[in-house]
Amino acid sequence: MNKAERTRRLIVERTAPIFNVKGYAGTSLADMTEATGLTKGSVYGNFANKEEVALAAFEHNWQRTQGAVRGAMDRCRTSREKLLALAGVYENLPPDFPEGGCPLLNTAVEADDTHPALREKAAEAFRGWKKSIVTVIEAGIAAREFRAGIDAEQTAVTLIAMIEGAIMISRLTGNARYRKTVMPAVEKIISGLS
Questions:
Q1: The pLDDT of residue 100
Q2: N or C: which end of the chain has fewer CB within 10 A?
Q3: How many structural domains compose the chain?
Q4: How far apart are the first and last CA of the chain?
């Protein structure tokens, strides 16, 4: 990795938590320079503008989120166990989960009407997440672990909506208990696939 690549990586890694907590609108250039220890010229010498930094920060945060989920799911053998592991990650957020909660929820809510590029990044992340859950469900159907005739896409969207809704309510109220109380309902849906 050359110096420019290391500097870009430093900027992304140090600003990603700020963008995830404060959002695009709430993150200032002063926040970015303070977090990185770099000057305005160094930040914008490596990125064209704040939006480009935000896009890279979202990607970084989403990769960390998916890494935590994949890590939990990869330790499982069955499709049912993998889906339960997914719920488990969101019930008890691991230490390597991005600060500020789920970047998909944070970015989607902020960027839905105001930042088309960030909105598209979040939509792309959702589509990828949905596809990975659909793949697990379809593998479970093929292995006769789940019953035939299940609408894998509808189930995946339902699971994501419940997980993201639980996170939103917990963040809104400042009460992590709400996130934990929804996960048994997610687990019940997963158990009902058999």
A1: 86
A2: N
A3: 1
A4: 48
pTM score of the predicted model: 0.91
Spell out the long-range contacts of 62-68 with Cβ–Cβ below 8 A and sequence spacing 24 or more.
62/103, 62/104, 62/121, 62/125, 64/16, 64/96, 64/97, 64/98, 65/97, 65/98, 65/102, 65/103, 65/104, 66/128, 66/129, 67/96, 68/94, 68/96, 68/97
pLDDT in tens, 153-165: 999 999 999 999 9
Cβ neighbours for 42, distance < 8 A, ≥ 6 positions apart: 7, 36
Burial environment of residue 158 by CB neighbours within 10 A (0 to 12, 13 to 18, 19 or more): middle
Give residue-wise pLDDT tens across range 8-56.
999 999 999 999 999 999 999 999 999 999 999 999 999 999 999 999 9
The H or E element containing residue 163 is helix 152-173
What range does the domain containing 115 cover? 3-191
**Radius of gyration of the chain, Cα coordinates, nearest whole angstrom:** 18
- Which CATH number is 42's domain given? 1.10.357.10
Q: Which pair of tokens denotes residue 72? A: 């939990």
Two tokens, residue 167: 């996170």
How many residues can be counted in the chain? Answer: 194
Buried b (16+ CB within 10 A) or exposed e, 65-91: bbebbbebbeebeebbbbbbbbbbbbb
